[in-house]
Amino acid sequence: MSIVTNLTKQEIEKIQIDEGVCIVDYGETTERPLLPCRGGGEFNATATIRNIEFDGRNGPTAGMQAIDEQNATLKVTIINMSQQNLMLAMPFCRMYDAQGNAIETSPSAAPATLKNPKMGIVPTAAYFKNLTMFAKLIDGTYKKITIFKPMHEGGITAKATQKAEGELAFEFNAHYGTDELDGDLWQIDEIDSFTLRQVQQSAGNGAT
Hints:
Radius of gyration: 21 Å
Structural class: mainly beta
Helix content: under 10%
Mean pLDDT: 86
Strand content: 35-45%
Distance between the termini: 43 Å
């Protein structure tokens, strides 16, 4: 016999349904949705906690734990194999236009040719401003999940298989800025609606 015999309206309203929509640089002039995607999006936030050991300690003790490191990731798989999307997989690679002129790393770049990057420090332009995922709830509102200064660090994997679509699997990592070493890494909001600059919204996804 089930222990749960009823659900309240408030409990039902906040059930998250359907896939998420992920947008690079949401709210910026460089805003771009990652579409079409497969498998929705997956957000993870973690903190590495160090237990401070002391005489008399019997185990983890409240007030005697320190956060050593924090990480946040947003995973999404897309099946659009454009050069612009391949560039997302390695945004610090060398890019060239159709005339062979070098293109500066940019979220809005549309390169004709991609080449392996030079060795050295990753340029700050390779980190986007944000990556934002919207997930719809039953009550019509959305969870807005944002990671800041994201970059995919796993490289490019392009596979061509018979009777299957090519996939680009991204795991974007959030990063602190050198001028914000204890700043924002991620943020979760609940909002009533959202607008995509570059996508014609359909009635089916509920966005405005």
